[in-house]
Amino acid sequence: MIKFNKVYKYFPDGFCALNKITFTIDTGEMVFVTGHSGAGKSTLLKLIAAIERPTSGEIVVSGQNIERLKKNVIPILRRNIGLVFQDHKILFDRNVFANVLLPLQISSFDSKAAAGRVRAALDKVGLLKKEKALPITLSGGERQRLCIARAVVHRPSILIADEPTGNLDAAYAQDIMQMFKSFNQVGVTVLMATHDATLLKDTPHRILALNHGNLAV
Amino acid sequence: MNTWLAQHWLAIIFTLKQFILTPFASMFSIFVIGIAFSLPVGTYMLLDNIQSFSKQTADTPQFSLFLELNASKSEIETIKQHLEQHPQVISFQFIPKQQALQQLMQVGTSGHAINSLTHNPLPDAFTVTTQHASPKVLEQLYETMQKWPNIEYVQFDSVWTKRLDAILELGRFVTILLATLLSTALIMVIFNTIRLQILTKRDEIEVSKLIGATDNFVRRPFLYFGAIQGFLGGITALAIVTFSILTINKELVFLFDLYSISFQLQHLSIEDNLSLLLFPTWLGWLGARLSVASYLWQIEPK
Predict the structure, then answer these.
(1) Average pLDDT for consecutive 10-residue bins of chain A (217 residues)?
(2) Taking CA atoms, what residue in B is nearest to A74?
(3) Please, what's the b/e burial string for B16-27 (b: 16 or more CB within 10 A of its CB; e: otherwise)?
């Protein structure tokens, strides 16, 4: 499902973010990416959604070679991926409902069915009662959950989360973690970056540990 | 189809919201476009009027054919046939030399001098009326008649039609120049308006692109905005021109009454009016398209 083969990523200033990364993630797997800040976790996730382009190497997502994907095909790739951002990237000019609706509008989803989908997604993250609220009134944890609802509303087969528990207290973080696990249980491939070691204690899932751009096996 | 319509509906809603959110800025841009456009349109309208006015007042073109003094009756007959057969000749009149002399004597002042002549110095002549045609065609006709046998001299006063034509041609050139310059200005105005809007919508564009929006999706609302702004600018230009015609006509009636000429500025044809609305619409679309393209290019991961 997701395959990296000798992937290098250098930034224009010569900084090596990823150094010869090779791994494979199967369909339906749940995998964590760990490492200190600046280890290359975010870069790795961005490469999968073609938000960054690799300097060299091969990346295959859902059977598609994406390292040289044409510009106009990238939107199609991204519609198959749910993205949870470290900084949420919530739009503050519209309410909770409209925020979650956006991915469906983008993929020209039928508007009647869309409302049902949005409510289902909000229900899953426990924000159904706040659909009319403006994001500015939400707490940090609620914003994170809003971001998750938006990432799953179009039912992607891959869910990528960058530090989704970053600024949350332990109880909240466990909550979010459970949410991702439940998505994984219904067949979604989940890839989550986190630096929170306590969260991963006794986890049965695979861990990709990054250290200064190198993958420790 | 339904979802396709919904996408466009979304874009139109966005445009209306923008107009409501920034009423003054939008109105100013529309006025700038309207005023800029009313200039070439006004000039064009004036030229159109001058042209039709000159057509109204100019007599149908007339030629005078003077025959050689020794032209015989049969030779005159041949020229008559030539004239009858020519498709552009509407009518002609033969003026024999005696008649011409009599007419000249009737004018009076020169009668005495003519009486002292021993023989008639005047040639036989034809006056020929032709269809309306461009100076070029009339020029050709002139040359054809000049080549007929026994023709001494063909007279055709084409100088003033040529002059008018040249002036109108110059006017058209100036209009095109003006229109080109102001169209470029319009594209730039829209480019900048859209750029400002893009900046306020930066987050939305970024998020949309990240979750799989195509460039088309991002572009669409801005294209609508540019096109609608151009269209409204066109309407403003039309209003300005119409208002000018109405006020100028009031003054014109007064002026032309002094010369006892009835003349009023006519508005442009419906086709011209329609293209006047469509052209700025297209320019607005183009300006928006360029603006979004330059922004999308900037944020594209390299």
Answers:
(1) 91 90 93 89 92 92 86 90 91 94 87 89 92 92 92 94 84 87 93 85 87 83
(2) B212
(3) eebbeebeeebe
Tokens of B252: 């014109």
Residue B59 reports pLDDT greater than 70: no
CA B193 to chain centre: 31
How do residues A179-197 score in pLDDT, each as one tens digit? 999 999 999 999 999 888 7
Residues of chain A in Cβ contact (below 8 Å) with chain B: 12, 49-53, 71-72, 75-79, 81, 83, 85, 89, 91-93, 102-103, 105-111, 150-151
Average pLDDT value for chain A:
90
Host domain of residue B279: 2-57+162-299
- Say what the pTM is: 0.73
The gap from C-alpha B147 to its chain's centroid, in whole angstroms, comes to 36
The Cα–Cα gap between A125 and A113 comes to 19
Q: Which ipTM did the prediction report?
A: 0.88
Same domain as B142, residue B13: no
**B197 and B251 fall within a common domain:** yes
Q: How far apart are CA B118 and CA A12, in angstroms?
A: 107
Residue whose token pair is 């070679």: A65
Q: Do the chains contact at A78 and B302, CB–CB below 8 Å?
A: no
Q: Do A83 and B210 touch (CB under 8 A)?
A: yes
| Closest alpha carbon to A216 in A21, A31, A56 | A21
- Chosen from B20, B197, B211, B215 to mutate, greatest number of chain A CBs within 10 A: B211
pLDDT for B57 beyond 70? no
**Greatest alpha-carbon span in chain B:** 107
Contact B211 A76 (CB under 8 A): no
Domain assignments of chain A as residue spans, ordered by start: 26-39+74-216
Q: How many CB pairs (< 8 A) connect A and B?
A: 61
A105 → closest Cβ in B4, B10, B206: B10
Does B2 sit within 8 Å of A89, measured CB to CB? no
Judge if B133 and B177 occupy the same domain.
no
CATH topology of domain A26-39+74-216: Rossmann fold (3.40.50)
